[in-house]
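User: My collaborator sent over this chain with a note saying "see what the structure looks like." That's all I know about it. Can you take a look?
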Amino acid sequence: MSRKTYGVVLRGLVCALVAWQVWLVWHLSTYDAASAGWSCYDDVGCGSDQLVALAPELGIGAAVLLGFLAARFLHRATVGVVIALSALAAVAGWYDAMDDGRVSYDTVTDFMLLAPVGRYSVAAWLAFSWSVAAVGGLAAAWGAVVSLRRTAALRRVSSRFTTAEAQLEGWRPLRGRRGEVTVVFHDRLGARHAVPVVVDRAALDRPVLAVYDPEHPADPGRTRVAMPRQRLGRSS
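Assistant: Without extra context I'll predict from the sequence alone. Here is the result:
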């Protein structure tokens, strides 16, 4: 196993462990929400010596750490995935608490984030948690689509396509932040090609790869520009 592969595998394992921690903490935050004991004082506010009181703050911290570690793999879907994971863990905590007889749909309970949110029924908290999970899921889906388009990931893993370091020349705006350029690259036989493609404007400011069909390297319909996050290297 190469050092690069070892590093990717190790980072993936760390992400899995942190994701598990995110799940556990957010699950605890709702599973034990109704049993938390609070002491309130007029001069300093309310506090508790139980772990559940700190669970949301710990969950937020773990979620931020997970986002930092997983960004290499999830790209623009990172924020949405982390939000959806946290919200679904909270949902699971509410349902497990009801299954164990701790609460019912009509139970009114507190729930803490960075500050007390208020006292609402478990049904209301579930509706809120499901809504957050849905928003996170939509954000993750949108981010995944954008990342797949920008990195040409599906084509890069296909045996029908290969990659080469490339340069972009010219810029003709089309719509929004997209425009037409000429991608210049050398195929694996050393032949030079200049192919018109459509890219995001962000591609103009960073190194890019040409993803092309080695059987038809000059075909605009089978050529894409990829903006990978990792350090560029020629592959075939």
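A starting point for your reply to your collaborator: The two ends are 20 Å apart (CA to CA).
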